[in-house]
Every structure is written in C-alpha cells, then in structure tokens.
Amino acid sequence: MNHPFLLLRERRFLPLFITQFLGALNDNVIKNAMIVLLTFQASHWTTLAPGLLANLAAGVFILPFFLFSASAGQLADKYDKARLTRWVKLFELLIVFIAGTGFWLQQLPILLLALFLLGLHSTIFGPIKYAILPQHLAPAELLGGNALIESGTFIAILLGSLLGGLLAGMKGALLWIPVVGGIIALGGYLSARAIPVAVPPAPTLSLNRNPFVETLRNLAYARQNRSAFGALLGISWFWLYGAIFLVHIPLYAKEILHGDETSVTLLLVAFIVGIGAGSMLCDWLIRQRRARVGWLIFAGGIGLSLCAFDLYLASPVMPAASSSLLNATALLQQPGLFRVLTDLVGLGLCGGLFTVPLYTLLQQESAPTHRARMIAANNIMNALLMVIGALGAAVLIAIGLTMPELFALIALANLLAVGGLNWFYRRPL
Predict the structure, then answer these.
(1) 58-70 exposure pattern, b = at least 16 Cβ within 10 A, e = fewer
(2) For 344-377, how does the pLDDT look when each residue is reduced to its tens digit (9 = 90+)?
(3) How far does the chain reach from its first CA to its final CA, in angstroms?
(4) Which of 91, 180, 211, 352 lies deepest, with the highest CB count within 10 Å?
C-alpha cells in the first residue's frame, strides 16, 4: 500500500486538501478571534458572562449543521461536487465581509450572524468533502486520504486558533481579522477551481425543499444500514466529547490555570497536535498490519476516558490565582503543567485513533448514490449531540460544577458510550 503523503502530489486529492485546509483555517481564525475577544474583553461588547458567551458562540456555529445538513447531502448527491465547492467558497468571501462589518462596528449580533453563516458554509461543504473522496481515491487509499484530511483539518484548526488569538491581541485587530480572513477565503476559492469533476451519483434526485422533513428522512435511512449507522453514532459522540474540551479550553486556561490569551494557544496546540498525530498513527498501524480497525476504535475510546480523568486529577496541582494572568512562558514553568499538556496531547491522539477508522467505515459501507446523504446524517447527529453537550455543560457549570469535574464526568460518560458502541457491533469489525 502506498504512503498516503504521495496523494499530495495528485490533482485528484491535493486541491481538495488545500481547499479543506484553508476553509478550516478561516473558520477558526474568525471564530477563535471572536471567542478570545469576548472572553477577555467581554465588557466592551456585551453584559453577558464570558462562560455563557463561549457556549452561545459554539451553539450558533453548530446550529446550521442540525438545520441544513440534510439539504446539503441532497445537493452533494445530485450535483457535481467540484462545482458546488466553488460556489461554497464564493459564499465564504461574503461571510468574511459580514464578519468584518461586525468587528468594525463592535456589534455582537452581526458577529453571531457571521458565525452562523460560517457554520452554514461548513454544513454545505461537509458532505462534499467526505463523499468526493471515494470517487477520486481507490479503496486502498481511502484510509490514508481520510487520515490526511483529518490531520490537515486539525492542523488548520490549530493554526487558525493560533492566528486568531494573535490577531485578537494585535493593535488594529478589528481591521486585521477580516483582512486576513478575506485573503484565506480567496485562496480557498482559487484552490477549489482545480478540483477535478466529480460526476454526481444521483443526478435525477428530486430535492426536498423542506429541510426538517428531509432531516427525519435522512436519519431514518441511516438507521437501515447497521454498520454505517454505528460509525455515525461513534463519530457524533466524539464531536460532542471534543467540542466540550475545545469550547472550555479558553475558560480552563483563564480560570483554572490562571493563564492569559497565549496560554489558551498553548493548550490548543497540545490538543490539536495530538489529533493530527493520532490520525496518521492510525493509518500507519493499519498499513503495517499491526492493528485491526475494531481494536483501534476501542483503544482510542478507552484512551479518551483515561486522559480526561487524569486531566481532572492533574488540574488541582496548578498555582493559586494571582493578581495577574500568566503568559505561556510563565505557565510552562509551573509545576504540573507538563502533565496537563500530556493529557491534552493524549486526548487528541486517542481521538484520531477513534475517529479516522469510523469515517472510513462510514464511507465504505454507504451506497454511492446515498453517500453524501449518509455523511449529512452524520453531520446532523454531530450537531445534535454537540448542541446537547454545549447546553449540558453550560447547565452543569451554572449549577456549580468546576471544569475539572466536568472533564471527569464526561470521561465516565465516554466509557459508557464506548461500551455501547462495542455492544452495537456484535460482529468483528
């Protein structure tokens, strides 16, 4: 089996990879810049508490996945995915303009609108990117292609979070954030123009204009395919799990570790580097025939709980609150920080081992004429569980649960989820 990095030489993969990379990069530049500004300068924008704002922003971004994923899946099955991608990237340029207006006027409602539209942009593109891979890649290349997409996505999330945080702390941030976002969006559109034609598998499909009815229909269809539906449930659970950590890392850095904006970046680096490493490790283990898919899913799932619970245990060893927040350099000198970073890397690594095989299984087990709609059903479930997770986390914190205690609770819940997934697949994967 060829090394997956060789795919980066080929037009059937590279333009899609670049387009996906830049799209994820831009989402996180704008989203993280917004969250950092609202976390550390909330009083300039609104009277709402920073913790509530973080969960509100996450919920607004996720909402389109729940509302419009089914419609996006229909479009991806009916039309040429390459052409759809180009239209989506033009839409991204408009979104950046709206976000720029919100930043310039310092209007929270406009920023939330832009965040909602960013979520809509990702909603439409999600079924396209995962459904196009089996059309352009051979079956033996699919796991490696997914690993590259997954790694690239999370590296883009990392770089976007870094860049967004840096831009948020710059003089003239309200101007520079949309300028950089516009440049990235333009690059995404140019790379999308090089994506080869992807012949639509269901050109005669009659579009259902009611997204709510189509959502129910998609979920009902997904349940008919046991193997694909199990993968869908596992992926969706991970997105709930991962979202809780990503949403709360800024607050964890500030309130538990007493760090500033740079410390947020440090924690994000640890988490996201771990996911990229885990994705590529998963491909290597399969190519070397050192592990079965089912074993990787189970091991990754158990590892997620172990790392999260150890993060709970490690958190109390951090220093007491001081009058000033610690930057990343100062934080690195604190006792116990290495253990926290190790746990975050471990969370990401185990997440990669858990999700990459599940994405590949979902693609392989879905009928070609319904593949995009199956992926759309996955996105619907992702959104549903992420919204439930965001609301649940907000309620638990509001009633007095600390963030380390929240991490311990989600670790225990994950053990139940992994056990449930293992029970679901009664036959070996």
Answers:
(1) bbbbbbbbbbbbb
(2) 999 989 988 888 888 888 888 888 888 888 888 8
(3) 20
(4) 352
**C-alpha to C-alpha distances, 180 to 109, 159, 186, nearest whole angstrom:** 21, 13, 10
pLDDT of residue 46: 66
- Which of 149, 130, 129, 142 has the alpha carbon at shortest distance from 286? 142
The position carrying tokens 């979520």 is 119
Q: What predicted TM-score, i.e. pTM, was given to this entire model?
A: 0.77
Nearest to 265 by CA among 148, 410, 168: 168
Pick from 398, 425, 380: nearest CA to 70: 380
Instruction: Pull the structure tokens for residue 197.
Output: 């034609």
Amino acid (1-letter code) at residue 220: A
Fill in the DSSP letter of residue 322.
-
Residue 425 DSSP SS3: coil
How many CB atoms sit inside 10 A of residue 241's CB? 25
* Model pLDDT, residue 95: 93
CA 123 to the chain's CA centroid: 12
Number of residues assigned to the chain? 429
Specify whether the CB–CB gap between 188 and 19 falls below 8 A.
yes
User: Which structural domains are found in the chain, ordered by start?
Assistant: 4-196+211-424 (1.20.1250.20)
pLDDT tens readout for residues 144-178: 888 888 888 878 877 887 788 788 877 887 888 89
Please choose, from the candidates 174, 36, 30, the residue with its C-alpha nearest in 3D space to the C-alpha of residue 106. 174
DSSP code of 224?
A: T
